[in-house]
Each structure stands twice: as structure tokens, then as C-alpha cells.
Amino acid sequence: MAGLPTRTRVIVIGAGVVGLTCAVRLAEAGYDVHVLARDLPLETTSAVAAAVWYPYRALPQDRVTAWSARAYAEFARLAEVEPGAGVRMRTGRELTRAEIPQPWWAEAVPDLRPVSRPPSGYAGGWEFEAPVVDMSVYLPWLVTRLERLGGTLTRHALSALPNAAQVVINCAGLAARRLADDRTLTPVRGQICQVEQIGLSEWWVDDSEPSRPVYVVPRLHDIVVGGTAEEGDWDTRPREETARAILTVAERLVPALAGARVLRHRVGLRPARPSVRLEAEDTGGGRVVVHCYGHGGAGVTMSWGCADDVIALVQERVPA
Ligand SMILES: Cc1cc2nc3c(=O)[nH]c(=O)nc-3n(C[C@H](O)[C@H](O)[C@H](O)COP(=O)(O)OP(=O)(O)OC[C@H]3O[C@@H](n4cnc5c(N)ncnc54)[C@H](O)[C@@H]3O)c2cc1C
Question: Pairing state of beta strands 203-206 and 87-96?
């Protein structure tokens, strides 16, 4: 008697937003998916993300724009049909100190408008509706979605890329520096404060000072106030002085924040790279490793777009 047809086994390394999104898409495509991760979802850099849809510190511009556009569409869909995913569409503004032409990623946003009356100190900016993702809700929701499709998530720290599966997806974020021996990956340290939700519904970004981006992102139960972007800084401990500076600058931008109770200080290391690595490496004997890491400050923003490309690379080589 013929046995049941076996599905192609895929190991996904990493349970951040990139690994989990790829895992969900692969499971939907019929693969037998197992995620191995040193840190579980709520312990990852992804859990620290603000996380507003905003292409930031990620290259190359053309691919980032395309991935971000696809992810925008998927998040907009989730916001409409899956309220439990923790995704909401919220209007917000990127403010600029000088008048600038449209942002390079403008075509990824359906409706981008110039800010009509910028606050004092600003020359202009862009207003649009963007997905805002509450990662404390969204990452567990992705895990549930994966498990319903038959996939698994296991805590397991790997010392090298595994060869126990025909297909391996490397979504180790900054740790790909060691796992894939990629010295071009560097940390860009981001410190944020989570403050109580005071009824704010719109987000704000001011990226005029590269190492001190200012952003205020209201989520379901709190508001993320940032931040910093410190190149090459590996320190994951929050700094008190930095927190004070973050709150002072943010209150200037959004005065309603004054007096809001601070709930938590957090730090994450953005996995920055001269360009996102999304490519397949054939490792012999019909095995393939698809690398998908180096998303800088936009891993959430690009997640669904990158996952689609990862799945296409796998399907070209190994059927489910
Ligand atoms: C303060 C801050 C604010 C941000 N705001 C935004 C935002 O508003 N919008 C946005 O789009 N992005 C934002 N980002 C960027 C975003 O967080 C990252 O781009 C994203 O988290 C990268 O996701 P990832 O899945 O690649 O990596 P990670 O979330 O770091 O996940 C990596 C996974 O790989 C696992 N791993 C690593 N090594 C091993 C190993 N040896 N064995 C097994 N598993 C391993 C880890 O344990 C983890 O599970 C922000 C980042 C920071 C720090």
C-alpha cells in the first residue's frame, strides 16, 4: 500500500516578524514548516518595533519600495478582516525641517498628501494612512496562524545553519552575522519608551536628525515614543539620560504626551546591512538555503513582500 505523500520539510531560523511571516506563507503553500529560534517572538527585536509601516534604514530603494507596497496591502487587509491580529490603519505625519520632494517610497502608499499646516519649526511633511502593528498582539497571532496550518515553533539556539531539511530559511536577523558569516550586518541601536495610552490615535515621525529620530506611535494599549538610531552600538540596556531626552523632544512634537505615565523602557538592535539579503544559495545535494535578513528599521514594513519573494525562490527549486 502506498504511504501518504510526504510534504517537503522546511526549517525556518528565527521567530521575529521576518521568520514568522515567511513560515506562515510557506505553510499556506503546503510545506511542512518548523521554526527554530533562540529567542521566542516576544523576546526578539521585532517585539521592540514601534511598529508603524515606514520604510526606514533599509536598502536598496527599489526593492524596499516594492516589498513595502505589498506588505502595506496585506496589513490593510488584515486591519479590515482580522481585528484580532493587532493591526490598525492610522493617519499620521512625517514632518521635515526643510521642504523636500516626495519620499523615495511614495509609490508604495495609496494616498500621500503634503502636510497643510506643519507645526512650528517644521517646513512641511507628508501625511498618509499607515498600518500600525501592535507587536505584542501580532507576533503571537502569527504563531497561532502558523500552528493552525500545521507548523511548529521550538526554542532552539543553532550554532550553524542546519542540514536536517532540504530547505532552510535563514531569518536570524542580526545574528546572521555569525550564522552566515556576514560581517556587513551591523546593529543600529534603538531605544524607546512605552507610555500609557492617553487617547492618541495619530502617529508622528520626524527623521531630520539621523541618530535621533523622533516618533510617537499610538497602539492599542500604549504609545511608543522614540527614539535613537545609534550605529554600531551593541548595548541593549536602556539609558536613563537617553530616555529623558526622548520624552522631552517627543513632548515638544506632541504636547498631549506631557505627564503620560511611562510604562517601560526598551532597546532593540536593528539588523542593518548595505542592502537586505534576500537570495537563495544552493548548498548541494538538492538542498537550498534562502537568506532573508538585514531589514534594518523596516522589517515589519517589508515583511509580507519579502515573504512572497522567499516563497517564490523556494517554489522555483523544491515543490511542496
Ligand atoms: C526601537 C526600534 C523601533 C523599530 N520600529 C520599527 C517600525 O516602526 N517599523 C518597522 O517596520 N520596523 C521597525 N523596527 C525594525 C524591526 O524591528 C526589524 O527590522 C525587525 O525586527 C527585523 O526582524 P527579524 O525577524 O529579521 O529579526 P529579529 O526580530 O531580531 O528576529 C531574529 C530571530 O532569529 C533568532 N535567532 C538568531 N540567532 C539564532 C540562532 N543562532 N539560532 C536560532 N535562532 C536564532 C532570534 O532568536 C529571533 O527569533 C524597529 C526596530 C527598533 C529596534
Answer: parallel
- The residue length of the chain stands at 320
State if residue 268 touches ligand 1 by the CB under 6 angstroms criterion: yes
Residues 60, 58: Cα–Cα separation, whole Å? 7
Choose which residue among 46, 70, 94, 179 to substitute to test ligand 1 binding: the one with the highest number of ligand atoms within 8 A of its C-beta. Answer: 46
User: Do residues 260 and 198 make contact, with C-beta atoms less than 8 angstroms apart?
Assistant: yes
Which domains, and CATH codes, for the chain? 9-317 (3.30.9.10)
Distance 294 CA to ligand 1 centre (A): 9
Instruction: Judge if the beta carbon of residue 27 lies within 6 A of ligand 1.
Output: no
- For ligand 1, pick from 44, 185, 203 the residue to mutate: most ligand atoms within 8 Å of CB: 44
Task: Kindly report, residue by residue over 226-271, the tens digit of the pLDDT.
Answer: 999 999 999 999 999 999 999 999 999 999 999 999 999 999 999 9
Query: Is this prediction's pTM over 0.90?
Result: yes
